C-alpha cells in the first residue's frame, strides 16, 4: 500500500527535530520503543482505510502524548477531597513542613543516626525519639518500629511466644484486610486465650484466665467500631491492677493514639497516650501516621525492662525504621512541645479542626469558578453541606460537619463520569459519590488555587 510509505522510518524520525526533542525529554530507548508501537498501530490503521496523511502528520504529537502518559507516576500528588482526612489508601497523614524539611535533609546527607556526636561512640537510632516520646507521654522508655501492626507483633512475640495472650472477645479486631488480631497472635507464636463475650467482659474473666503459662494480658482499643447497649469492659486502670497482682505485663494497643486532647480541637474526647500511661499499662502501642500526623511508624512505650527486652528481639532489626522516617518523626514530635501552634503547623490537626462555616465560605467562593470550568462539560456545580470523617479507624462513628462542591449532571452515570474525568487529571482530584452527586469535600483543600489549577487541565 502506497499510504504506508508516508510513515517515517524509526531512524529518520529519531533524527528529526521532534524526535530529538522527545529524546531530550524521555531518552532514546523509551522514544524508540514508543515509536515502534505507534508505527505498528499506524500501519494497521492505514491498512484498515485510515487517512495516511493525517496519521503521519499527527505522529509526533501522538507519540509525545504516549510518552507523557507513560512518564506519569501513579504516585503523583493528588487532591484528597474524599472527606476522609486520614485516608489509608491515599497515604494517611500529610506531614508538616518541619517534618518534610527534616526528611529531605536526611535523604540528601549523612547524619548521626547511630553515632553519638558528643563522645564519638556508637549510639542507637531510637535515641532521637526516646526522649521526646517519654516527655510527651510520661512513659519510662520507648522504642519505634515500622508501623503499629509491627509494634503489636513484636510485643506479642517478645512476651507471649509459646505462651498465652489473654484478650476479651469484644476486642478481637480486624483492621482492614490482613490485620486480624487472632492471625497476628498466631504469627507472633502466642496462644490466643479468648475471654468474656462479645458484649461483656468482667475482671473475673481475666483473673480466671491467668495461669503459669500467661505471657501477657492485652487490651485493644476498638478503634474502628463501637459496641453499644448492654456492654461491659474492664477499664485499663483496673486491668493494670489485675496484671500487676499476677506479675504479667499488660499491653494496651491504642491504635490511633492521640498525644493531645482532641476536645481542644472540637472533636470527641479520646483518651490520650499520656492518660493510657497514667492508667498503668506496662506497654502501649500506637501509630505514627494516624491522629499523630507523622509518617508511618509504630510506637511502643512503657516499662524500661520490657522495652529493653523488645529491643533485644531479633525481629526489631527486621522492623526498624530508616533515617528518613526517624528524621520526619522527630520533627513531628517536636511540634507537640508547642501545643498552641499545633493546628497551624500540623496538617492533620489543621484539617480535622476546620469548622463548617469556614469551609462553606470556601465552597461558595469556589462555586462560580469551578462551575465555569465544568458547565461546558455538562456538569452543574453547587455549594452544599457534607460530613467528613477522621478515617483510619479513629472515632469511627463520628462525623465532622463540613462543606463542599456537589457536582451533578444528566443521567444516572453522571457522578461516575465526572469522577473518572477528575481522577484522570495530571493532578487527580478524588471525591466521593453520594446521593447521585460527586461530592468534593473541601476540608483538606488548603489553597483554592490547588483545585482550580488541577481542574484547568480538563
Ligand atoms: C490502626 C490500628 C492498628 C494498625 O496500625 P498500623 O499503624 O496501621 O499498622 C493496630 N491496632 C489498632 C487498634 C488500630 O486502630
Automatic annotation (TrEMBL):
Belongs to the SelA family. Residues 4-43 form the L-seryl-tRNA selenium transferase N-terminal domain. The keyword Protein biosynthesis applies. This is L-seryl-tRNA(Sec) selenium transferase. It is an enzyme of class 2 (transferase). Pathway: Aminoacyl-tRNA biosynthesis; selenocysteinyl-tRNA(Sec) biosynthesis; selenocysteinyl-tRNA(Sec) from L-seryl-tRNA(Sec) (bacterial route): step 1/1. InterPro entries: PyrdxlP-dep_Trfase, PyrdxlP-dep_Trfase_major, SelA-like, SelA_trans, SelA_trans_N_dom. One of its GO terms (molecular function) is L-seryl-tRNA(Sec) selenium transferase activity. Keywords: Cytoplasm, Protein biosynthesis, Pyridoxal phosphate, Selenium, Transferase. One of its GO terms (cellular component) is cytoplasm. It holds the Pfam family Se-cys_synth_N. It catalyses: L-seryl-tRNA(Sec) + selenophosphate + H(+) = L-selenocysteinyl-tRNA(Sec) + phosphate. The modification N6-(pyridoxal phosphate)lysine is found at residue 290.
Amino acid at each position: 500500500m502506497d499510504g504506508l510509505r508516508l510513515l517515517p522510518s524509526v531512524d529518520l524520525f529519531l533524527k528529526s527535530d521532534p524526535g530529538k526533542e522527545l529524546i531530550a525529554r524521555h531518552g532514546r530507548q523509551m522514544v524508540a520503543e514508543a515509536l515502534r508501537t505507534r508505527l505498528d498501530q499506524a500501519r494497521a490503521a492505514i491498512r484498515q482505510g485510515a487517512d495516511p496523511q493525517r496519521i503521519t502528520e499527527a505522529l509526533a504529537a501522538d507519540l509525545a502524548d504516549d510518552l507523557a502518559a507513560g512518564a506519569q507516576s501513579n504516585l503523583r500528588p493528588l487532591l484528597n477531597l474524599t472527606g476522609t482526612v486520614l485516608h489509608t489508601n491515599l497515604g494517611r497523614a500529610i506531614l508538616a513542613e518541619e517534618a518534610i524539611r527534616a526528611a529531605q535533609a536526611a535523604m540528601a546527607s549523612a547524619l548521626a543516626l547511630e553515632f553519638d556526636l558528643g563522645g564519638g561512640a556508637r549510639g542507637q537510632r531510637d535515641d532521637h525519639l526516646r526522649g521526646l516520646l517519654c516527655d510527651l507521654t510520661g512513659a519510662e522508655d520507648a522504642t519505634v518500629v515500622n508501623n503499629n501492626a509491627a509494634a503489636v507483633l513484636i510485643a506479642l512475640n517478645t512476651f507471649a511466644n509459646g505462651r498465652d495472650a489473654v484478650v476479651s472477645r469484644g476486642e478481637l479486631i480486624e483492621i482492614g484486610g490482613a490485620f486480624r488480631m487472632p492471625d497476628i497472635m498466631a504469627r507472633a507464636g502466642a496462644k490466643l486465650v479468648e475471654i468474656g463475650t462479645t458484649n461483656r467482659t468482667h475482671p473475673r474473666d481475666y483473673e480466671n484466665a491467668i495461669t503459669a503459662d500467661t505471657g501477657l494480658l492485652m487490651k485493644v482499643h476498638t478503634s474502628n467500631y463501637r459496641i453499644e447497649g448492654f456492654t461491659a469492659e474492664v477499664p485499663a486502670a483496673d486491668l493494670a491492677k489485675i496484671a500487676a497482682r499476677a506479675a504479667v505485663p499488660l499491653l494496651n494497643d491504642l491504635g490511633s493514639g492521640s498525644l493531645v486532647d482532641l476536645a481542644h480541637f472540637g472533636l470527641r474526647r479520646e483518651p490520650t497516650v499520656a492518660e493510657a500511661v497514667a492508667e498503668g499499662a506496662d506497654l502501649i502501642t500506637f501509630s505514627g501516621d494516624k491522629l499523630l500526623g507523622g509518617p508511618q511508624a509504630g510506637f511502643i512505650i512503657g516499662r524500661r525492662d520490657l522495652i529493653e527486652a523488645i529491643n533485644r528481639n531479633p525481629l526489631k532489626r527486621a522492623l526498624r525504621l530508616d533515617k528518613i522516617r526517624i528524621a520526619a518523626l522527630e520533627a513531628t514530635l517536636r511540634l507537640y512541645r508547642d501545643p498552641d501552634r499545633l493546628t497551624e503547623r500540623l496538617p492533620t490537626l489543621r484539617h480535622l479542626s476546620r469548622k463548617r462555616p469556614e469551609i462553606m465560605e470556601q465552597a461558595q467562593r469556589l462555586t462560580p469558578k469551578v462551575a465555569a470550568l465544568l458547565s461546558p462539560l455538562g456538569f452543574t456545580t453547587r455549594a452544599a453541606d457534607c460530613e467528613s470523617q477522621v478515617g483510619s479507624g479513629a472515632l469511627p462513628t463520628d462525623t465532622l460537619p463540613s462543606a463542599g462542591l456537589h457536582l451533578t449532571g444528566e443521567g444516572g452515570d453522571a457522578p461516575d463520569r465526572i469522577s473518572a474525568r477528575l481522577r484522570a487529571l495530571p493532578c487527580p482530584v478524588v471525591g466521593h459519590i453520594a446521593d447521585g452527586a460527586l461530592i468534593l469535600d473541601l476540608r483538606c483543600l488548603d489553597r483554592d488555587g490547588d483545585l482550580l489549577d488541577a481542574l484547568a487541565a480538563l
